[in-house]
Amino acid sequence: MYHLDFRSDRSMDLVGIGRLCIDLNADQFNRPMEETTSFTKYVGGSPANIAIGAARLGLKSGFIGKVSDDQMGRFIQQYLKENNLDVSGLSLDDTGAVTGLAFTEIKSPEECSILMYRDNVADLKLDTSNVSEEYIRQTKALLISGTALAASPSREAVFLALDYAKKHGVVVFFDLDYRAYTWNNEQETAIYYNLIAEKCDVIIGTREEFDMMEQFESFRQDDHQTAQKWFHYAAEIVVIKHGEAGSIAYTKEGKSERSGIFKTKVLKTFGAGDAYASSFIYGLMNGWELNRAMEFGSASASIVISKHSCSEAMPTVEEIQTFLKTSRKE
Amino acid sequence: MYHLDFRSDRSMDLVGIGRLCIDLNADQFNRPMEETTSFTKYVGGSPANIAIGAARLGLKSGFIGKVSDDQMGRFIQQYLKENNLDVSGLSLDDTGAVTGLAFTEIKSPEECSILMYRDNVADLKLDTSNVSEEYIRQTKALLISGTALAASPSREAVFLALDYAKKHGVVVFFDLDYRAYTWNNEQETAIYYNLIAEKCDVIIGTREEFDMMEQFESFRQDDHQTAQKWFHYAAEIVVIKHGEAGSIAYTKEGKSERSGIFKTKVLKTFGAGDAYASSFIYGLMNGWELNRAMEFGSASASIVISKHSCSEAMPTVEEIQTFLKTSRKE
Amino acid sequence: MYHLDFRSDRSMDLVGIGRLCIDLNADQFNRPMEETTSFTKYVGGSPANIAIGAARLGLKSGFIGKVSDDQMGRFIQQYLKENNLDVSGLSLDDTGAVTGLAFTEIKSPEECSILMYRDNVADLKLDTSNVSEEYIRQTKALLISGTALAASPSREAVFLALDYAKKHGVVVFFDLDYRAYTWNNEQETAIYYNLIAEKCDVIIGTREEFDMMEQFESFRQDDHQTAQKWFHYAAEIVVIKHGEAGSIAYTKEGKSERSGIFKTKVLKTFGAGDAYASSFIYGLMNGWELNRAMEFGSASASIVISKHSCSEAMPTVEEIQTFLKTSRKE
Amino acid sequence: MYHLDFRSDRSMDLVGIGRLCIDLNADQFNRPMEETTSFTKYVGGSPANIAIGAARLGLKSGFIGKVSDDQMGRFIQQYLKENNLDVSGLSLDDTGAVTGLAFTEIKSPEECSILMYRDNVADLKLDTSNVSEEYIRQTKALLISGTALAASPSREAVFLALDYAKKHGVVVFFDLDYRAYTWNNEQETAIYYNLIAEKCDVIIGTREEFDMMEQFESFRQDDHQTAQKWFHYAAEIVVIKHGEAGSIAYTKEGKSERSGIFKTKVLKTFGAGDAYASSFIYGLMNGWELNRAMEFGSASASIVISKHSCSEAMPTVEEIQTFLKTSRKE
Question: What family is this (chains A, B, C, D) (predicted)?
């Protein structure tokens, strides 16, 4: 059905690379941020959330990233450790960079926004000297998140990590996670996203993210063609997300599966994608059928969007199973 | 005793210029920031605190500054309005700048530190086109804070405001407020601090701040010589603060006054200088004797350091009077 | 012997992309530049020289590049036109960039150096919007020079041109032309050089340039392994130059050829590589045996290093043939 | 008539500070630069030209500046030495900066233009540590040129030099020399020009330069008001140049003198202002009447614009005297 070769001779399951930051979630919700008076601090950043989510599900997870040499950086490191992630791949910034911040505003379940602090952030200072070939050869899978490509030297560090992964038979997941504000322009973004995607085994993104990547192509907004493009390169699975309309996954073998979303009481929309990715990856790494992995991902997403945080809300296998028993798909 | 000519034909008392930002004060104190889980949001920034403090004391205050075009910027604007400051001198950034942040850590009353976010901040984007000659000619006094000199175009905006103030007989207070992290180096800092100080009527700073400004001089750490240097230019009063040892004020007329500090239950040290400045300025603008104004400033400082915030904690005249009746100086 | 498919249905033979600049060659030589009093102006830049050389040999050449909107930029454009290059691929900078300069110093034939002006240069402002898919599909071959990868947006423009070339069956030559001063560091350089090289048909560089590209590999300074690495990707021919010791070319088919250099009266060493590349490419595009193309390249190089300029000195086929009849290899 | 106190106890007459660069003058003139094929190299930069001119007239001149650590920088240093300037105030850049270049184009005597290379130039890297109080206290006069104010750290170095000059009774000449391309905007320029001008004894500039400086004033284009503005500060003499209409000089004592220009065969217009300044300063330092110094300056300007270079063409006293005998004013 799909062919992903997770090597059994590895000591880790999944290593994430890229953005590690702090979420400051408004304690008062259903109002504009101007009227909130306090914020609660969580570890955030898409690949960090996914790695934490994977660890919560029982995968042996690690992370390659750079943290600021201050209280925020130490908090992140400590939190990862406490959540059973291997932190030996973390580096400490020595340039005076800060930790990226994401202030969340929850005006209503439908109207959520993020105020980002991304100037001079430590995660984008990750450089090639921080990427250990030895570390990467010890893992079954590598998770790349697109935000890490937004600037040098982080971009080059990711290209090097990808090279090492290919060299040592590590399965590579690419979660597009495109955030316009950290990039110079869409053209630059598309160039580097495509260069990475060419070598990845599983590509996960929204329809809009794939559109951005296809700006130099003659075809447009066609899920099937999108998937076929990447099967000409290294991809085995391409997942295209359509928000509330669910997602569709294609395999190189020629199959496709659709998946809906679950009814739930939504607090905010943040974290849905990260929860989906961590649980979907968990399913694939356990050799599940594609549709079972997708359903597991959707359930995980539903759980996270009903809670206040992203990282801290990542569910266990038991929670997801319980949810699946009691919920129904839309 | 001292000669400051506050023109009676003005509609405002005090206009501040420069840094406007957000303080995020740890809700849990007497512990390292790594262990705090939430932060409360206040308006901050030294000249903003002083202007708010002055308004709390009943002065007609205004502010010339630039705020970010986001929730943080709108919160600041709203807070100033609610606190009776004139906000017609505020400009809105259109470059995508953010609001500066100050995360405070209160390990113990003696061990406080601040984690600053000062990259790409709106307050340093204030430019000459944002400074209205008409606005400045309507005030009795202008308050300049040194942090606004740290970068272009804010630095030039301050030089222009100072020129307008001199042209229209506005008394100028210069609160040194030197923060090393926003400057390239100490040499650059000293050059611009001195250029500003040459034209100011009242200069207020710590011994360390004056030391920085005197790095190209042949004399060192001598309060008397420091004061004399500025009396050769435009200064009428020079206040040099020595932390817990109190402060000393010199007048051009040749007098000097010492002032101690009050015993109080200290929560944190932040905000002491801003409270002192606002209340000291209030005293001078009411024509008080120097030592009475200094004592009023010290009392105000003592009140603020016993509370959680800086801006929000700024006392009224009644609070200070009550404090003075019940407290004793060290 | 080697397999390069130059499509016959194309209106151009060779299109260069990248650096276009001005050489200012000392009129007085065999002395330090401090003692030269005047300089003669020539068009320069490695890929420009190669494209001009190819045109001199009769190939239909074009160029994708960006020139400054000033006298220097107009001079370059005019010179290319006069030398029968198609200039419809040139763009005009509108950011106030300047033309890169290379002041040459000829202390002795063995001691030549270049003083570069590479700040804010127009050629590195080439962006993806300046790269026409239509233009690239009209050429048999594309020549990429490594210096164009040194900065954004030129780097992304080259990646896009390469993608279009692959899509339309255009043979891609990669002349490494590594110049340390335009790069941030060697790690960054290697990452992008390798990403380009993976997709090129013919790679030409010095041993030192390949060493730089192999810094993340376990093997070192082994011509054979270097060539094999690239044959695993798209390369058909890899040429490794060893200065005065001549060069060695490998083909994917498993053959290798060595070529020496010709005795000549050397004025300066500049331009040897560009002359070699243009004539070697000419040979390959005519379907010559590898060793004949290499000898033709060596002869061309010998002619150029005996003259004052690079671009202007590029020889015709007749000149090279005459040279070959009268010279002998070392 | 005017009061400038040149202290007799000094070992140097005039020290320039600021821009030192290279002029590359087209060898072929009366044509656009696109058609010139070679350039001759000269030392250039307004304050360098003035200091060289002053030395040519017999003044003991020195220079505070920074040169690049390459052949261009060494050429400048050597040329100054050979022209009897004291070079002990020169510093060597260690950041990889280049020497500024000015390519001159002489389309006709009336149509001259300059193509500037001012990115990353060594002269703007001069910093406060390169300014010696001891050096400045040894000179009678300091010449400040406005271009040195265009960027940090050169700007701060000039402010420090000015402070030392005031402290030690050094007469300060300010040649405005405003070049828009090195500045961010006109507002910034005016702020710093005014801060410098406030403390200078003699201010020399074109009407357009004074207009730029007066953008925050209520008056406009009025030579008399311009002069009066500066007499309220430290100025003794203000010279306003009106191109071919000659110039007007005002003194604090209330006098003004007009001066025309001489008929001459013009090759190019470059260098006229620098020649004027050096000879005018020479006259003032010899205690001449204002009109005699102005006429001497005009004659010097006429000589330089009839020759190919600026620095190299600076005349001796004898040349100017000969010129004055044989020429007539327009």
Answer: Belongs to the carbohydrate kinase PfkB family.
Q: Are A43 and A268 in contact (CB under 8 A)?
A: no
Q: What are phi and psi of C23, to 5 degrees?
A: -95, 135
Q: What is the domain count for chain D? A: 1
Is the pLDDT assigned to residue C330 strictly greater than 70?
no
Domain with C135, as residue range(s), is 12-18+46-95+124-326
Contact C39, C24 (CB under 8 A): yes
In chain C, residues with a C-beta closer than 8 Å to the C-beta of D32 are 71
Closest by Cα among B83, B112, B142, B111 to B314 = B83
Percentage, residues of chain C above pLDDT 90: 90
- Does residue C306 fall inside a structural domain? yes
Residue B330's pLDDT band, with cuts at 50, 70 and 90, is low
Q: pLDDT at position D330, please? A: 61
Nearest by CB to residue D39, choosing from C34, C38, C117, is C38
Nearest to B14 by CA among B198, B165, B122, B179: B165
CA D161 remoteness from chain centre: 16
pLDDT of residue B308: 87
User: Across the interface, which of B127, B133, B188 has its CB nearest the CB of D187?
Assistant: B127
Residues of D with Cβ-Cβ distance to C74 under 8 angstroms: 34
What sign has the CA pseudo-torsion A75, A77, A80, A82? negative
User: Which of residues D264 and B18 earns the better pLDDT score?
Assistant: B18
Q: Does residue A111 carry a pLDDT above 90?
A: no
* B chain contacts of residue A182, beta-carbon cutoff 8 Å: none
Of A39, A78, A115, the CB nearest to B39: A39
pLDDT digits (tens, 9 = 90+) for B33-56: 999 999 999 999 999 999 999 999
The CATH number covering residue C244 comes to 3.40.1190.20
Please judge whether C40 and D38 are an interchain contact, meaning their C-beta atoms are less than 8 angstroms apart: yes
Provide the CB-side half-sphere exposure for A22 (13 A, CA): 29
- How many other CB atoms sit within 10 Å of the CB of residue D254? 9
The CA–CA distances, whole Å, from A95 to A122, B32, D274 equal: 8, 22, 45
> Pick from A291, A298, A259, A260: which is nearest to A276 by CA?
A298
Given a cut of 80, is residue B328 above it in pLDDT? no
E-state strands within chain D:
12-17, 21-26, 38-44, 61-67, 90-92, 101-108, 111-117, 139-145, 171-175, 202-206, 237-241, 247-251, 256-259
Is B255:B290 a contact under the CB 8 Å cutoff?
yes
The answer to whether D39 contacts C27, with C-beta atoms less than 8 Å apart, is: no
Ranges A33-42, A144-153, C153-162, C266-275: which has the least confidence: C266-275
Evaluate the CA torsion angle C77, D115, D307, D108 in order and state its sign: positive
Confidence tier at C111 by pLDDT (50, 70, 90): confident
What is the rounded end-to-end Cα distance, in angstroms, of chain B? 26
Alpha carbon of B87: minimum distance to chain D alpha carbons (Å): 23
Which among A41, A74, A119 has the least Cβ separation from residue B37? A41
Confidence at residue C133, expressed as pLDDT on a 0 to 100 scale: 98
Chain A neighbors (3+ CB pairs < 8 Å): B, C
CB contact under 8 A, B187 and D159: no
CB-CB neighbors (< 8 A) of C115 in chain D: 70-72, 98
**Does any domain span residue D36?**
no
| C-beta atoms of D103 and C71 within 8 A | yes
Residue B289, pLDDT above cutoff 70: yes
Residue A5's pLDDT is 97
Contacts of residue B326, Cβ cutoff 8 Å, sequence gap at least 6 = none
* Residue B168: inside a domain: yes
Per-chain mean pLDDT for chain A:
96
Judge contact between A261 and A330, C-beta under 8 A.
yes
Interface contact C39-D36, CB threshold 8 A: no
In which residue are the tokens 């929000």 written?
B312
Q: Span C201-209, mean pLDDT?
A: 98
- Residue C264 — very low, low, confident or very high, per pLDDT cuts 50/70/90? confident
